[in-house]
Amino acid sequence: MPITLSDLQIEEADYQKHNIAAFDCTDPDLNEFLKIDCRVYKDQRLSHTKIAIYTGHVVGFIALLADSISLIDEERKWLILKDITVQQVPALKVGRLGVHKDFHGQGIGRALMQYSVAVAFRMNSELSVGCRFITVDAYTNSISFYERLGFIRSQHKVYKKRKYPNMYYDIVSGPPIG
Amino acid sequence: MARPIEPTPVLKGKDAKVFLARMKAAVMTPERLRWLESIAAESKRAENRKSTCGSTESCR
């Protein structure tokens, strides 16, 4: 049985409360982000990192921040959407996502991505702040994971050449994550 | 220091057209709204669930 959002506790990362030093998802960059950088991002109001707890274990984390998807001027003729002109679409960015190595393949990454969609929806419904998309800069070995969730990868050569290709998910029309 | 969180690139060309075409075609159906409301409620339960921290070495 996969672990789902209903099995998890989600808490803001807290160096006093959570034994973050013991966390290991096997990726040095993700480990370093959680152990060192995320507190600076929080202090500077650049992102907030949430910890997933399962049966008392820190099993994963997700860092979220405000984002937008912009379109260049040349495409303005395409920016008419239901009689309004749109040049920038609000989004929620997944800055980092990591799962503890002992819990890989058990559904925690999927549950945390479902959580990100829920947060984007709650921005609209509870805070009255527009948010339409989830964006992520995917690790190359995670692209298929995000594609399975319904994320779309930009095909332009400029984006494809990026080490961490950008992908996006529409909270209105993306396939349900669950 | 971990690598910085990179800026989301500006969409252009075919990507922009595909993006807008998808947005134009998207409709918030009642089923979709129900799903979003259900995961929103689940996310709040996950945030409010009684902490089990302290029961393992992962949580102090």
Summarize the amount of helix of chain A as a percent range: 25-40%
Could you tell me how far the N terminus lies from the C terminus of chain B, measured between alpha carbons in angstroms? 25 Å
- Relative strand content of chain B: under 5%
How far is the N terminus from the C terminus of chain A?
13 Å
In DSSP terms (H or I, runs of 4 or more residues), the helix count of chain A works out at: 4
Number of strands of chain B: 0
Protein described:
Chain A is α+β, with helices and mostly antiparallel strands and 178 residues long. Helix content of chain A is 25%, strand content 30%. Chain A has four helices and nine strands; from the N terminus they run E-H-E-E-E-E-E-H-E-H-E-H-E. Chain A has a seven-stranded mixed beta sheet, with helices on both faces. Chain A has a two-stranded antiparallel ribbon with strand order 4-5. The longest helix of chain A has 18 residues. Chain A starts with 8 loop residues before the first strand and ends in an 8-residue tail after the last strand. The mean pLDDT of chain A is 91. With 60 residues, chain B is an all-alpha fold. Helix content of chain B is 53%, strand content 0%. Chain B is flat. The mean pLDDT of chain B is 85. Classes of the chains: A alpha+beta (178), B mainly alpha (60). At the A-B interface, strand 1, helix 1, strand 3, strand 6 and helix 2 of A face helix 1 and helix 2 of B.
Which key terms come to mind for this protein?
heterodimer, A: 178 residues, alpha+beta, seven-stranded mixed beta sheet, two-stranded antiparallel ribbon, 4 helices, B: 60 residues, mainly alpha, 2 helices
Q: Which helices and strands appear, and what pairs or packs with what?
A:
The complex is a heterodimer of chains A (178) and B (60).
Chain A: E1 9-12, H1 28-43, E2 48-54, E3 57-70, E4 80-81, E5 84-85, E6 88-99, H2 108-125, E7 133-137, H3 143-149, E8 152-153, H4 157-160, E9 166-170
Parallel strand pairs in A: 6-7
Antiparallel strand pairs in A: 1-2, 2-3, 3-6, 4-5, 7-9, 8-9
Chain B: H1 13-25, H2 30-48
